[in-house]
């Protein structure tokens, strides 16, 4: 690796780059493109549901939209966006010159676009795209699936490999490349949450790969993993899937926890309250995520002992999560608060994620879940934690570090307007879905009973508002890169802490080739 | 991975690759067999044993009568006729009972069927023993022919006292395409 040169010119810079900042940037742009794609699928869903009756699309196409919306948002938008953030920030935060495996880093990004191209191409295949929901339960996804399911399976394989390579890289970086004196308990919380997330990914992405491989074998090689006729069991699929799927939701949310744990102290001008307890709570959540998977399957016909075990284990997750929420609130308590856009999105995260956590507790109650199962209540719950949780925190992260990345300041007023329009649009979209869900409106259905009409119209209007506000976000980011006001100081936010604020804005192409000096004082309390 | 030979992260990377490969293998060699073993052992999912039962105790408990109901249904678009000869029996725990299911292939093709049992309530599955069952094997039928398919079962003396009725449901699958490839296990 040549030490003192800038980026190569032209397209080859991006194709062959091994620079963590370049790769991080590509991840972030790719995930935003996927966010727009998945968002446009959501707009089609909400347009169809604007009124009862069949309005715009065929039911089969509607099912393809719900499926692809979920897959693209989870695997294409949220996960790669946090990987991009990890690429950009982890080396800067721990004082490393780059990721531990720069060339593998390049591969793990560049196999993603072909993977998603393959997934999106199923839309134009005979029989249409996958239409079995993002959870792809067998036998709906095996016996009854369109032929395009094979492409879906390979797409999942590709992005699974990408995620595993990315995680191995992150773990290797954090464990081996910290600057001298950067002990584990001195690492910024974002690095901690990503370290734990990466371990979760290494443990469960292979399980997802196993599940789709079994589907592939059932479809093409005559095995019967999920076919009762040959001695298999469709319920087995749900166990395997959710053994991956539940840790997956923490894979999505833990880095978001890390982001707000950086931002809230910065704009409260106080150190993070309870640093050590934050680390232990993150680890506890990660451990618990492996023993609660069947709470997604209460209605499948489990023995009562199983229902009770998964119910209590699930409720237990509220304890470490509560520790985190109280720590964030305690950090703000008597702080010198200011409300720049990153802080607004973080506080929005805090409020809305907590609502999503509470509805999660409601869903964890096994006997009550029989009423909520597969209704819009579930849809409302997981959009509160996925959108207001992961996406809000990701948005906060972009506003927070954009001046560092680009050396230019974004338009603060437009950022604030983006927040308020997002916040209001989001709540108009998803709050009414709690009500229609409790009243029994099923999810993944293109038509609904007349009594749900008003709330669905509200939901659709809210979704269009939320969707439109993201265009404003895109505009603000591009305008910042092109013509934003130049930032002169290294430490863009006066309350921000961490090594990333000791390098110039924008940082040089190569940073920390000489390890930085770490304050030798004891680690966080 | 040329860069690995001198990379300080080499050991970490090797360990993590091993972990991810092991987790992939874990799905096939642990999760799937463990699921089947647990379901068989605990009778959860209403799964019954797929092997003929040899009675341990022949003592018949005349003090209890258990109602056993039979249900036969066809999976998907299986075109056969399929029904139990009687829909309900009263049996004493420990006694061997015989009944017959009818199958009729009314199509003009040779076909193979496979019946898959399920017990409700699922807690009873571990106490419902089949000494002989058509579901242990695939059932081939020529075009326009019928078959009487025998079932012999014993309800275990240790059946929990609160269970008074057991429902045995068979779903008949069309396995013509699979037949010959492998012997069905259930």
Short description:
The complex is a heterodimer of chains A (525) and B (186). Chain A has helices at 11-16, 20-48, 59-94, 102-110, 112-121, 149-176, 189-220, 234-268, 275-288, 304-316, 318-332, 341-364, 366-372, 376-406, 412-438, 453-483; strands at residues 408-409, 485-486.
Q: What is the helical fraction of chain A, as a range of percent?
A: 55-70%
Number of domains in the coordinates of chain A? Answer: 1
Using the CA coordinates, give the radius of gyration of chain A.
23 Å
Question: Regarding quaternary structure, how should these chains be classified?
Answer: heterodimer
Structural class of chain B: alpha+beta
Q: Into which percent range does the helicity of residues of chain B fall?
A: 10-25%
**What is the residue-mean pLDDT of chain A, rounded to a whole number?**
94
CATH class designation of the largest domain in chain B:
Mainly Beta
Unreliable stretches of chain B: 181-186
Secondary-structure element series of chain B = HEEEEEEEEE
CATH architecture of chain A: Up-down Bundle
Largest interface: A-B, 42 and 46 residues
- End-to-end Cα distance of chain B, whole Å, is 47 Å
Largest sheet, spatial ordering of strands of chain A? 1-2
| Count of helical stretches of chain A | 16
Per the CATH scheme, the topology name of chain A is Cytochrome C Oxidase, Chain A
Q: How many strand units of chain B?
A: 9
CATH superfamily of the largest domain in chain B: Ctag/Cox11
Number of beta-strand segments of chain A = 2
Strand content of chain A: under 5%
